Structure formats: C-alpha cells, structure tokens
Amino acid sequence: MKKSIILVCGIGMIMAAAGCTAGQRGQETAGQVNSEQQTSVEKSEEQGASDKEGSSRKLTLGRWGNESQLAGFEQSIQGWVDEKYPGTKMEYSYCDGNEYPTKLQVWFSSGTSPDVIRNTTDIMYPFKNKGMFYDITEFVENDPEVSLDMWPEGIINLWKTEEGLIGLPVCQVSYCIVYNKDIFDKAGLPYPEDDWTEAEFLELCEKLTSGEGVDKTYGVWLGGWVTEYMRSLYGEPLLYDTDNLKMQAEGNEKFRDAMEMFASLYKNGYTSNEINQTQTSGGFVTGQYAMAVMQVTGTMNDLQTSIGDRFDWDIVQLPYSETYQTTWNSNVRINGYSISSQCKNPEMAYELVKYLATNESALGAEASAGVPVLNSFVESEGYLNDYYGYDANGVQFNKMAPLVMEQFVQPYEFAGFWSEINDNIKVVFDSYVNGVYSLDQAIEELQNTGENAINNYKVENGL
Amino acid sequence: MVKNQEKKVKHGGIYKESDFFKFVSLWIAGFFLFTMIPMGYSLYTSFTSWDGLRRPVWTGLVNYEKAFLKDPMFIKSILITLKYTIYAVPVNMVIALLLAVLLNRRMPGRDVFRAIFYLPAVISGVAMYIAWQFIFDRASFMNYSIAKLFRSAPGWITDPKWSMTSLVLINAFTSGSSMLIILAALQGVSTDYYEVAELDGARPWQRFLYITLPLITPTLFYVLIMQLIAALQIFTQPYILTKGGPMNSIYTYGLHLYNQAFRYKYFGYASCLSWILFLLMMGITIFLFKTSKLWVFYCEEVD
Known about the structure:
The complex is a heterodimer.
Chain A: H1 2-33, H2 37-52, E1 58-64, H3 71-84, E2 89-95, H4 100-110, E3 116-120, H5 137-141, H6 153-157, E4 160-161, E5 164-165, E6 168-180, H7 181-187, H8 198-208, E7 218-222, H9 226-230, E8 240-241, E9 246-247, H10 253-267, E10 289-296, H11 301-307, E11 313-316, E12 320-321, E13 326-327, E14 330-339, H12 346-358, H13 360-366, E15 371-372, H14 375-378, H15 381-384, H16 400-405, E16 409-411, H17 417-433, H18 439-460
Parallel strand pairs in A: 1-2, 1-3, 7-10, 14-16
Antiparallel strand pairs in A: 3-14, 4-5, 6-10, 6-11, 6-14, 6-15, 8-9, 12-13
Chain B: H1 2-6, E1 8-10, E2 13-15, H2 17-45, E3 48-49, E4 57-58, H3 62-70, H4 72-103, H5 110-122, H6 125-135, H7 141-150, H8 160-173, H9 176-187, H10 191-199, H11 204-215, H12 217-232, H13 236-241, H14 253-263, H15 267-295
Antiparallel strand pairs in B: 1-2, 3-4
Helix pairs in contact in B: 3-15, 4-8, 4-9, 4-12, 4-14, 5-9, 9-12, 12-15, 14-15
C-alpha cells in the first residue's frame, strides 16, 4: 500500500521536475534564439516556398483588446492570410489593456508567447535587450518594399535597441486638448485655436468653471495620468532621464513650474478633485468639463460613441508656453508589432508585421487605437477625410492637430521599475494638492524616492 | 483483535487502511505538485534576485534586509493592512451575527431575506467592486442624493480620509457568507437550553449572552480565522477601486506584493514578501488558537 502512495507521489514529483526543466529550457531557448537567428532566417526562407504552396501551418498573434472590438482587425488579417498563405490557421490571444504588461511577462517567462506580439514603446523596457524579441533588421534590409524612412525618424528610432530592430510602428498616441463647444457657446467665449497660449488656457479654465456641487461645470478635465503631462511639459530636462538612469526633480525649474501649474488647477477648483483616474463617470464625456487634456486617436471613435449627439466638440493643439517658448510637450507611446524570439516561422511573422504596419486597410483598422505613423498613409486624403473609422458620418474634428503635436512629444516609460517612480509621482502630487507637502518638500520627496527606485534597479541588475 | 478494529464494515464490504491511502494519494500528489513544490520554489526565489525572465541569482538575505531596512512601503503597507483588518473583521462579524440572529427567527419572507443577504457572496468579486466604483463615483445617484441632502457628498474613493471607510463598507456588504455559517450554528443550538432558561426567568438578551453566544463560539472562532486571513490578504478591492490611492491610503500589503512582482519585475523580492505575509498570518493564527482556550466553548469539554 505504502508502495502505491510512494509511486503516485513519485510520479507527481517527476512530472513537476519535468515541468520545471521544460520551463527552464523554454527560457534558454528564448535567450538563445537571437544568437541563432541567422540559422532560423535561413531555415524559414527555405520554408517560405512551401508556405506559398499552401501547406497548413499556424501563426499566433497576441494583443490587447477583445474579440468583439477586433472583429474588423481579424477580418483584415484573414484576407491577407487567404491571399498570401492559404491554409494557414491564425490564432489570437487577447487580454485587457491594463493587464497587458503582466500578460507579456507571463508569455515570456513561461515560453508561450505568440509569434507576433502587439508591442508599445512604453511597456517594452523590462523585456528589451533580454532576448525576448526577434531582430528584424535583416528582413527589412532585404525587403525591397520596406524602408525605414517610410516612418518619421524619431518614431522608428524608438524601435531600435541593442538587440537590433525589434518591430515596426503602426500608430502613436499623444495628447491634445478636446473642448466642448456648447459650454464655450453658453459662456460666450471664442473657441481656442491652435496658436493659443498657456495664459489663455488658464484664463479659459477660470472663466468656464461655474456652478457648485454635483451640478458644477469644470474648466478642464485631466484625463489619463497627471504625471504624464508634468514629466515633460516644457521639454528637457525631463523629470527623469531614462537613458542615463537619472532623476532630475531637484533644480528642475521646468518641472517645478509644470507641477505648480497643474496643482493650481485642482486647488482653484478648475478641475474636479478626482485625481488619477479614480472617477468612473467618464470625465469629459459627461458634458461637465469645458476642456480635457486627452489622448488622441485617428478616429476618436470611443469619444464619438460616448458623446453621441449630446454636445459638439473639437480638438486643438496643446497651448504654447511664453515663459519657456515651447508648445507643451506630451508623452508619446508608439504602438506596433514585434516578433517573439520563440517564433518558429519568423519569415511569415515578419510578413504579417509588415502587412499590419504598411497596408492602408490594416492601418485604417488601427486608427481607432492611435494616429497612424506611416508617412504615406497619414498624409493621404483618404485618412484625413475619414472621421469615424469606416463611417463618414462622424464629427469632423481637427485632424491636423495631433499630426502637428507629433513634433512636441517625449517617449515615456510605463513598465518595470519606472512604474514605481510614476506611482510615487502620483502619490507625491496628490499629497502636494492636498496640502500634506509644500512644493519644495514634494520635489525633494520625488527626488529621493526616484533615486531609491533607480538604485534598487541598479542593484537588482548588477549595474 | 487490533487488526480487526482497523477494519470498518460498510454495506457488507470491508475497507482496509490501505484503501484510505489509495483514495487520498491523488490528492497528496496534487498537493505536492500544485502547492508544496511552488511554495518550495517561492522560498528559494525569495533568496534570489529574479526578474521572471532569466534564471534567479542567489543573493542570500538581501531581499529580507531590503524589506525590513530599505523599503518604506513595506512597513506602511503592513500598517494599512492591519488597520483594515482591525476595522473590517469585527464589522463584518458583528453584521453577520446580527443578520443570522435576525434571520433565525420565524418571520414572513425569511428565506427571501436569507437569499438576498447571501447574494453578494455568489457574485463575482471583480464585477461587484466595479459596481461599487460606480456607486462611489462623484456623479452617482447615491452621491447626488447625499449632496442634495447635506450640500456635499464624501469623496468615497478620492478622499484619503474616506477611502478606508469605503473599503470596510464593501467588506461589510459581503457578510452574507459569514452569516450563513453562523446561522447554521444557531440552528444547531438545542431549544432545551432556552426552555430551561425561560423557566428560570431569563430575559431574551440574557438567553443570547449566556446560552447562544457561548454555544456558537467554535463557529465564531472559525469565521474569525477565515475573515482574518482574507483581510490580511486583501488585494482585489483596493486594486479595482483605486490601485491603492489616493495618497496610498489603501495601499495594502497584497498590492505592494503584486506591484513588486508584476509591475516592477522584482520577483525575488515579491517571493520574500509573500513568505513574510505567510509567517505573519501563521503567527496571528497560532496566537488566536492559543487564546481560544479562554473564550471558545466546546461542549465535549463539559463533563
């Protein structure tokens, strides 16, 4: 009897040990693939011919979103598969956007990442230069249809790492100001124009705030994360230097002024006291905010759907600071696609990435997620006149504003130890707004907590 | 003789001791596979530096040193979690006890009320907390009504002074499961005791205090332990509501652990934190078991 128990337990232990070994092997494979990439490329080139003959194979794609939202996206890819690789089975893995960095972690650590991965510049930090992504430099160099100057230089540079080119960009998400025309009309004030100043913005915030309690109309809604605006508002030096792992809160007049200015919006009651996305009622779409600093996409269809025909709205560029002689800088995240280093068929995966990054139909399907970055597409009449995805009846907003704002953006970090610093910034900003810290104390706290986080990272990574 | 005693006769068949082990062996294998081995690996990684991607690197006690000496959020998150536990567990238990006593009486619609109070325990936690997020919103019907009555409404999850209250309130809303367990215990109390007490002239509150309460203390003790463990592990509620804000006012230990692992990518340190939490919970549970001799009444102890 005891023998049978020992036998069952023994089998269990062996299975567990085997599982661990397989996991380790998966990790080793992930790290080794890049060094063995040349061989893989050669193999996949040999396999390419049989692909075109229609041999049955599978390609997996992982991204954030859900099936119902991405039906058009899948349809677009299926059309490409049927034409280019008939018989190939596409499989998709989706998850919620907020949980996507965690999903990436799980995929990579368990050795189960999809072949093609939706990637974005602000969450790749913990994974890049660790053998997780396939270097597609060689594919691009040998591809007569693709050249890196098809995208703005600053944008494509964000996809170049020590490992090489780890993906192609599709769209960018940066900030503009959205305003409620009805509230402006009611107040008898002219709409803001693209050459407006920070002083005019602050004056409008004051004039457009009215009423009390739950019926109050606020001058501005700060959607997203306040830290996103403060960190880089007036340009260099930014709050933290990601290249040199340096915190730059103390002695940084630009950051100090940005923090003070944003806090004044809360303290003066020009924006509601819900800080850091703790309000669920949707902010600007409620019609209680005259303006909103908001992430802009190519179609603004989420906003259009939420607002419907309840009020009129439009978009304007971020204001110009006369003190620092610059238009406000905002953070930018560039969405695109990478290939997993564990991918068994990188050539086919590259063809899919190329299709998603360069095909107008595919880019149109992505416009609801950001402003496309392919030069030829974004400058086309088709894109500039398409206001609601594939429905021409959407609000005809100022589509040039986000394109101009591309000149005033700073890359951002959202994952890894940088998120610890971002979290601290939120807490310190809240504390400053609530009077727990003075401005000097807040900046000192930011400097200290930021330096601690950077030092921790250096110790953990032996830097 | 001894051998015969070990055998149990049921439905004409004989089960041997070995049959028990055969039945339980699958569970033992599962326990090793899915609990003991991961726990062992977690203990190992707590002594390493590990980003979850590459192999862990042995660093000895560095993570433990970091927790106690270099991480201010470690102590802060423990204090916040203990504060929550101190408020939430008694509130939950008192409400559960009151509801159970109330619903143990014969009254119209009793079963409907039992189902209603138990309902939150059946609903998915995340869905319920998202619903609470909307209820606590500045523009919600509840806040609109409060603002109309009292000129202003609290910032339930936006004001650091109110966020802990909101968390305790949500927990109180889920006292249905504790209520059900206590209700079962109440129904197990023999009516003989009450009849004798009534004959002796005991008032209702005396009957509750001297008969009901002592007889259900084993169940209350069980509920207390379960509630305590759940409170110390609290994660989902603050994560869904505010991610620990505002101003880290509900930044619990569970959130700190999650952030260290899945957001900041310090998996070795997160393992260390999870072991500290395990030891803390074990310590508190052992302490409660020791003190239970003073207040938990087991019938079989009375000769």
